[in-house]
Every structure is written in structure tokens, then in C-alpha cells.
Design brief:
Helices cover about 10% and strands about 40% of the residues. It starts with a strand and ends with a strand. By secondary structure, the protein is mainly beta.
Length: about 170
């Protein structure tokens, strides 16, 4: 005795499967099917969202690791590693300068990059203020950037390297 389908019993051997057929769509079949929103309403599918252009600077946390040719590492007095983030949706920049947090605006046009209207909190941290001042001053000088792979960027004043930053990916 064989059990087939949903538990029905049969004494017959299983039948051979029918060969499958490939159906070719007709020109009318290529159109998107309507989306049913409620029992009374039928509408077309939503329009596809255009893809964002590749913007390698945006929506990454860029950790400062070199400033004016000198390595930057966490030191006593730092409240946080210096970093900057550029929003994808707006022209807002924000970050930490080692002791204080900062925010402002930025503009990108090709390889041109400029920061403006930068504001910071006003906490004094022994051992961190020199790096902080140089980092914020460097952001004022930057007018270009150059990507080095996907995970590193160089901020420049004309052709002079002002700082180097590495992408820090957060889980």
C-alpha cells in the first residue's frame, strides 16, 4: 500500500511525471500586475525608487588617524577618538574632536569638499585640546578630498595633505 498526496491510500504504483513545458510570456504578460490595497481598491505597483549615486564619503564614521603629518591615537584626556560623519540625506556634518562634539554643514562637488558653520561644545580636557584645535582648524582649511580605496580618505588643502581618515564600521 502507498500513501500519496495528503494521506490518501492507493494500491496503484506512482504515475510518471509529465514532461514540463516552458511557457513564453506574451507582450501583455510583461506588464506589472496590479497591487490590491483593499477589497475595493486596485492600483498599480509603486514606482521604483531611483538608486542613490555612489557617495563614498557619506554615512560612514571617518576616524582621524593622521593630522598634519603626525599620527593621532587615543591619549589621556581624550573623551572620544576624533571622527567626522557626513549625512547622506542632508548636508550636515557631525563628529567628535577628541574632547568636544561638533557639527556644521558641508558641500561636495566632485572632489571639492568644504566645511562651514562649524559649532562645538566648550568642555576643556587636559591633554586633548591641541589635537582638537588642529583637527577643527584643519576642517576649515580642507577644500578637496581623495579616496584611497573604500576605507580611507585624504582631506587636502589644494594639493597639501591636511589629514587622513579611516572608515570605522559600526555593527
Amino acid at each position: 500500500m502507498l500513501v500519496t498526496g495528503c494521506g490518501s491510500k492507493s494500491n496503484e504504483p506512482p504515475k510518471a511525471a509529465e514532461p514540463s513545458r516552458v511557457l513564453q510570456p506574451t507582450p501583455d504578460a510583461v506588464k506589472p500586475a496590479p497591487v490590491v490595497q483593499s477589497p475595493d481598491t486596485i492600483s498599480s505597483p509603486p514606482p521604483k525608487t531611483p538608486r542613490q549615486p555612489h557617495e563614498p564619503l557619506k554615512n560612514k564614521r571617518w576616524r582621524l588617524y593622521e593630522l598634519n603629518g603626525a599620527a593621532v591615537a587615543m591619549a589621556e584626556g581624550f573623551r572620544q577618538e576624533p571622527y567626522i560623519m557626513l549625512s547622506l540625506q542632508t548636508n550636515r556634518a557631525k563628529g567628535a574632536a577628541s574632547c568636544n562634539r561638533f557639527g556644521g554643514t558641508y558641500s561636495v562637488d566632485g572632489e571639492q569638499l568644504a566645511f562651514s558653520e562649524m559649532l562645538t561644545t566648550k568642555v576643556n580636557c587636559d591633554g586633548a585640546m591641541e589635537v582638537e584645535r588642529e583637527f577643527l582648524r584643519g576642517l576649515e582649511l580642507v577644500n578637496r578630498y581623495r579616496m584611497v580605496g573604500e576605507d580611507s580618505v585624504v582631506f587636502l588643502q589644494n594639493s597639501k595633505v591636511v589629514m587622513r581618515l579611516a572608515a570605522l564600521y559600526l555593527n
